[in-house]
Task: inverse folding
């Protein structure tokens, strides 16, 4: 199984079981915040791969 990114639900589950002051719970919370921030930044920019693929398909249909 490949690595997965930490999400808020997972971080909350870890904090609930280990305590909010636990080092691992703190790192999980920070990772979840960083992943959320990175996900939000990517959605603001223009789409890259999917958009270019659609343009190629549209151009072929016009001919």
Result:
């Amino acid at each position: 199984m490949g690595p997965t990114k930490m999400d808020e639900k997972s971080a909350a589950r870890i904090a609930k079981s280990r305590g909010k002051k636990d080092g691992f719970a703190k790192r999980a919370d920070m990772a979840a915040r960083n992943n959320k921030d990175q996900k939000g930044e990517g959605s603001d920019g223009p789409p890259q791969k999917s958009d270019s693929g659609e343009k190629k398909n549209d151009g072929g249909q016009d001919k």
